[in-house]
């Protein structure tokens, strides 16, 4: 990445809070109705929204990948539609954002940001369905199941597990998973084909306003409980003498994937060290050294966490005696084919099974 681009990204990110407030004020001037939509909380609501967009913009600029920003704006658009907020407000807010950046930042810095904002505005124009109109497409929660079986085409087993959890029957949900194993399904398949899709579905439901935070937390707690049970039901290969450290990068509060992956690596004969969610970079480096890791796996959920991933990779690479391979995964890498390369990782895995296979290939290559 160029120094100029990195500098521009740093300026945008460090000023996100103040610039977000300025953009909110400009938005109210351009479209006064955006203030009345949220009554007394309008300023803070829009400041928070626009500050988040700026952080996302900074990451996209830093990595030179417009799709990172465009796709986050489209994600916001779906949330607007689901919550009956006119989508025109989103396009207008991007215009306000662009004006504020032109006004408050140097021409050089704002010139890096402008093409990304324009790309998002053009995409919104193509995607537009009218202010506040919830179309009949995927994820709008208009299906007969109230959004439960939406765009992910969730199968019957996942729906049964999810329904049991949301009805408050966590024990029944876990027992159902165990029954699948007892009937011949490998626990690996239960995790990949039931638990992982269930977590994705509850996230989609929340985004579409079909579930709330409490329900998401309930599912996560039950899934962690289920993983602890399923982990004991799979056969373990002979110890291969390799150690893997698995963590969600700093800022990533999600850890279902890292716990599941830890089980997969254990089944494959690895010593698996799962550090969980939101691991500070300095502590990650200590863990890599202390456990003598042969492989580091990082989970990155959002594009805004890519900078934390970059810092983590750089920190680990700075240890002379630990030139270990780094494998990454997570939705953050869906917006660019080579994003893992741009942050310095050796490979990107698209599934739990692929991560174990690629991990073995990476350590074999470095032996």
TrEMBL record:
GO cellular component, one term: cytosol
Entry superkingdom: Bacteria
Keywords noted in UniProt: Cobalt, Metal-binding
GO molecular function: cobalamin binding; metal ion binding; methionine synthase activity
Domain B12-binding residue range list: 241-367
Pfam families assigned: B12-binding, B12-binding_2
Protein name: Cobalamin-dependent protein
Organism expressing this protein natively: Eiseniibacteriota bacterium
